[in-house]
UniProtKB/TrEMBL annotation:
SUPFAM superfamilies: HSP20-like chaperones (SSF49764). This is Hsp20/alpha crystallin family protein. It comes from Streptomyces botrytidirepellens. It holds the Pfam family HSP20. It comes from the Bacteria. PANTHER family: HEAT-SHOCK PROTEIN 20 FAMILY MEMBER. Residues 24-136 form the SHSP domain. Belongs to the small heat shock protein (HSP20) family.
Length: 144
């Protein structure tokens, strides 16, 4: 139920990810994710290892879900000399256009072992319903 709005935006995102290892507030890096349906809800899992919960911002405006996070460098003593630094730092962001069939009023978020998991229920109006055929000439009643 996730809708892609611009195929070129995904290409730009991948190019940006390959070109830079750290993001800034004006040009954030992307975060890897999985999205799947589990029963009557959609689940989005985003990898954010090493990010504290107070550095994660989740926002929904209309049907646009935005997740931003910042991984800050660990504080080191003055006598520490960095030999190798491969872990990406900076700002990470992901925007997803959610379908109208999802209930954006009841999104829940959990953060465990570096994975942010968002659960978005399917709206009642989008669930299948039975239509009963009543007595009389072509009268129908919707039950749900």
């Amino acid at each position: 139920m996730l809708m892609r709005t611009d195929p070129f935006r995904e290409l730009d995102r991948l190019t940006q990810q390959l070109m830079t290892s750290s993001g800034t507030w004006s040009r954030p890096s992307t975060m890897p994710m999985d999205a799947y349906r589990e029963g009557d809800e959609y689940v989005i899992a985003l990898d954010l290892p090493g990010v504290s919960t107070d550095a994660i911002d989740i926002d929904v405006e209309r049907n646009m879900l935005t997740v931003k996070a910042e991984r800050r460098p660990a504080t080191k003593a003055d006598d520490v000399q960095m030999e190798l630094s491969e872990r990406p730092l900076g700002v990470f962001s992901r925007q997803l256009m959610l379908a109208d069939t999802l209930d954006t009023e009841h999104i829940t978020a959990d953060y465990d072992a570096g994975v942010l998991t968002l659960r978005i229920p399917i709206a009642e109006r989008a669930k299948p319903r039975k239509i009963a055929i009543g007595e009389g000439a072509g009268r129908k009643q919707i039950s749900g």
